[in-house]
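Hi R.,

Here's the chain you asked about this morning:
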Amino acid sequence: MESFIFEFLKAVVALFIIVDPLGNVPIFIGLTEKMNQKERRKTFQTAIIVSFALLMVFAVVGQQLLAIFGISIQSFMIAGGILLLVIAVKILVFGGWEEKVVSPESVGAVPIACPLLAGPGAITTTIVILQTSGIIVTVLAVLVISLIIWVILYFVDPIHDFLGKTGSAVVARVMAIFIAAIAIEFIIEGLKFHGVI
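And the predicted structure, written out as tokens:
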């Protein structure tokens, strides 16, 4: 039981750091600043549903998807680690994503749900958790993270006001350092399996 709780908490923390809903608050505000409150709520609802669905699909059939393409989890960890590292560097250098918004209706799905919430990093992490901790831990972790995302998006305005521009930038960059560290761990584990190190 203790082992299960530890694995579950580890999975939730890893996903939370990768998804980084707090660090993305300034981006959420920026992407929806021209919307009224009703449009913003609808956008965030779409984001939550789409990101939850994407992560849940990979939590349930991630293993089968890897098998179909003949990819080992270690190779996926290396590829995912490199992608995570790129994301972390982009956030550290530029302070966030540079996404062009095509239409308000699509903002919830792209870029908020994917790639900001359920991007390559979160998908990689979900598959790794599935492989290392099992389906139950993975599904529960995705559910908890989706609930946390919902709470943060519901209170996005007060959170942004509380953090301010400087606070939001600091949170985003600190989270980016953790993302980079997780990325390095993924790459090292994958390389160890392949006998490179």
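The chain has a mean pLDDT of 85.

Let me know if you need anything else.
M.
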